[in-house]
Amino acid sequence: MNNTIEHARSLLPQRVNELLGRANVVATGVGYKMVGGQRTETASIICSVEKKLPASSLSAKDLIPREVDGIPTDVIETGPIRALQAPTGRFRPAPGGVSIGHKDITAGTLGCWVHRNGQWMILSNNHVLANSNDAAIGDAILQPGPYDGGRDPDDQLAVLEDFVPIELIGAGSGSDCKIAGAVASLLNSMAAMLGSSSRLQAIRVQAAENLVDAAIARPLREEDVKPEILHIGAIQGTVPGVLGMAIKKSGRTTGYTEDEIQQVDVTVNVQYGTGRFARFKDQLMAGAMSQGGDSGSAVLDEQNRLTGLLFAGSEQSTIINRIENVFNALDLTL
After folding, report:
1. Is-contact 203 165, C-beta < 8 A?
2. What is the tens place of the pLDDT at every residue in 269-285?
3. Range of the domain at 155
4. Cβ-proximal residues to 3 (8 Å cutoff; 6+ apart), any chain
5. Are residues 272 and 240 both part of a single domain?
6. What is the pTM of this model?
């Protein structure tokens, strides 16, 4: 079985763009096939769709094949996968798992306390602490978040220290194809003047792939730091997420929840408001263990080892950044 899983993991990167290009598909990953609502021991390439549709309503090119190069496929309905941000008390000192947010957002979750260059830092999502790229370093971070009554400056806990920019595609993202179209138009005009009948066509650029939705904030006072997570306790190291691992989190909306890693090597298109999305690769997927406002939650295993940073999901799914990618991107330690 392990050999089959490894084969599927090596195969998926070669087919991921093809599968995500099919209508209704929002994510792909490697997991175990579900039959009658029960997990089997059959390793599969899993395609998550916004809504399961009858085959008769799909074109041939949008049907998911029964297998990919000998690996069975499975289709699960997750609904649209969105960055989890939704609009509870004030905590001083503040632990992980409580409401927090940039002064201009609603509210998300303070994931946990980490270190950079020997200083305490709050770890959460870019879209929680940095307003989906729109914030400036030094901006006020409130606890609780604005939706939960946090006010600037009375409830300011920290200032934005750093964030990993999210490569967004779509309206207002600055990453659509207007530039490509303008360049093609200019070159075509030049070609016409030179008597050439050849013409260029602007082709949609493939979505840039992100690894993390992550940001850090520096507390105004060290006495406001509580290096543990509400309802969980202190973090006991880190561990890579693996298929079938039992996990837990504490978030501002759904509190303490448990689940397991159902898919690894997930590539997923995540909505960031109307008309914008971002593609993330090398993600972990769990079941329905979160709701809006849980974004930024730290995800741990049964031994309280940190394995991921929750950032998106749907009614049936939760998407998690690998913690090793987060730490590498922001030069963090525990």
Report:
1. no
2. 999 988 899 999 999 99
3. 82-167+209-330
4. none
5. yes
6. 0.83
